[in-house]
Amino acid sequence: MTQQDPGPPLARAPRTRRLLAWLLDFTVILAIAALLGWLTFNRISAKLTGVPGLVGISAWQLVTSGGDLVGAGQGVGSSLWRSSVRAVWQGFAGLVLFAFAYRFASLALMGRTPGQALLALRVTGRRDGERPTRATMATRAAAGTLVDVGWYALACCLLVGGAIGLSVLCWILAVAVFGLSALLSLAGPRRSLSDRAAGTTVVSVFRITTVWTRLSATVRRPTPDEEQPPLAPVV
């Protein structure tokens, strides 16, 4: 039995396709962020309906009030504010958990995210080119979530909690980390921060040479008449 030719090694993911794959995946995360934001502010608005003196106060005013609300006692205002801040924190925590679960589940099941699957990309080990283990996939998913969502979520939580200085520093760090990861994923070996943390790389699974070879073999396949051996000459 002859061994099947494994073919040439898979090529690095093209920049355009990798960027489009990230945009597709991030669009899903943004849609969930919008849904969680809507649910969170509805939760906060519902808290205001039980206080007659706060009928005209919006959810955003409550979150940014620091507990100083005209029309409510100091104790009531502080309690409502702390409750609204917890609701915001829970919303961002839910977003981070979803982003991680979205990445890890798709990587563990398919070896790539839905966006990468649509663009014919796959995550492999950097050294052996094989499918990474689940622990490696979890590391990559956690690092990617931290870069794309985690630092921004932390900055927003610090902001609504009143820690403005720490929030600004966290925003600066978030932008710097995101920009560095984007630069690394599009330049040189094209390995983002999450790839480097997990020891993985993103490759293209669409081989134009393989497709052309198979098409050529199909077109040139001999007919049944051509496959018959020639007749022996009559003596």
TrEMBL record:
Localization per Swiss-Prot or TrEMBL: Membrane
Alphabetically ordered keywords of this record: Membrane, Transmembrane, Transmembrane helix
Name the record gives this protein: RDD domain-containing protein
Keyword Heme: no
Membrane-spanning residues: 20-41, 87-105, 151-184
Membrane topology category: Multi-pass membrane protein
InterPro entries for the chain: RDD
A Pfam family assignment: RDD
Predominant location: membrane
Domain RDD: 13-199
Organism in which the protein naturally occurs: Streptomyces cheonanensis
Lineage, uppermost ranks: Bacteria, Bacillati, Actinomycetota, Actinomycetes, Kitasatosporales
